[in-house]
Amino acid sequence: MSWTIYQVDAFTDRPFSGNPAGVCVLDQPAADGWMQAVAAEMNVAETAFLVPRDDGSYDLRWFTPSVEVDLCGHATLASSHILWEQGLLAGDAEARFHTKSGLLTARRAGDGIRMDFPAEPVAPSDPPPALRQALGCPIRFAGRNRMDWLVALDDEAAVLAARPDLRLIASIGGRGVIVTARASSPLRDFVSRFFAPAAGVDEDPVTGSAHCALAPYWARELGKTTLVGYQASLRGGTVRCEVAQGRVLLGGAAVTVLRATLL
């Protein structure tokens, strides 16, 4: 038996930028250990596994090279892209995914894709000493949600210059740490970076699920509900966000760069 697996660059319209995700569409559920092994073999931030339901929707799970995660934006974007590109969904159909974070949906929107995700706002919290030590720079705000810490720094330059101690980041619990600041460019509202060494991803190139926390935070700080975020990793990527009634709409493009056969 064999399966087709794709690699898709998400939150970008150019190959070899944005965040790469593996996408594997199965005809029936697979063993957890097998999916984890495939994700380790792909060795990208997340690999998505989809199983169709009779009503045209899909069960969707995400694995990093080392663990399963509860929510992943860029691999959901990549999955939607593959379903439409390969003709598994009609171009005007809504993609519907049943996940550990509830029902997620996506639709084509112009040249990109718009996804409907749950908002994951952070509650203000005193950062643990290990987090302060790991970052080694002044912290303007710290908070956390069920997955991550969000830390706001003084300015964009501080975010770009951050060289956190990943060993300490991995020790504080949770999935990872989002570092953010207001953007210096008028074309963007905020910048961010995301570190998740405990989940097997030292620095994620572009993290859709982190924007479920970033968008509510910056909507409150800036007094606006439509925002543009830029994740300032080496590959980089733009995430367009809209906050509405406990949800976050995330927009971006995707490009297929690889198709292979799992033997």
Protein architecture, described:
The chain is of the alpha+beta class. The chain has two domains: 3-112 and 252-262, Diaminopimelate Epimerase, Chain A, domain 1; 123-245, Roll (Diaminopimelate Epimerase, Chain A, domain 1), CATH 3.10.310.10. 21% of the residues lie in helices and 41% in strands. It starts with a strand and ends with a strand.
List the helices and strands and how they pair.
Blueprint: E1 3-10, E2 19-25, H1 32-42, E3 46-52, E4 58-63, E5 68-69, H2 73-85, E6 95-99, E7 102-109, E8 112-118, E9 123-124, H3 129-135, E10 141-144, E11 148-152, H4 156-161, H5 166-171, E12 176-182, E13 190-196, E14 201-204, H6 211-222, E15 226-231, E16 237-244, E17 247-252, E18 254-262
User: pLDDT average, as an integer?
Assistant: 96
Distance between the termini: 7 Å
Total domain modules = 2
Tell me the CATH topology of the largest domain: Diaminopimelate Epimerase, Chain A, domain 1
Q: What is the name of the CATH superfamily of the largest domain?
A: Diaminopimelate Epimerase, Chain A, domain 1
Q: Given the structure, what is the number of helices?
A: 6
What Rg is obtained from the alpha carbons, in whole angstroms? 18 Å
Q: What is the N-to-C succession of helices and strands? A: EEHEEEHEEEEHEEHHEEEHEEEE
Q: Give helix % range.
A: 10-25%
Overall geometry comes to globular
Please give the CATH architecture of the largest domain. Roll
Supply the helix-strand structural class: alpha+beta
Overall strand count: 18
Low-confidence stretches: none
**What is the CATH class designation of the largest domain?**
Alpha Beta
Main sheet record:
18 strands, mixed
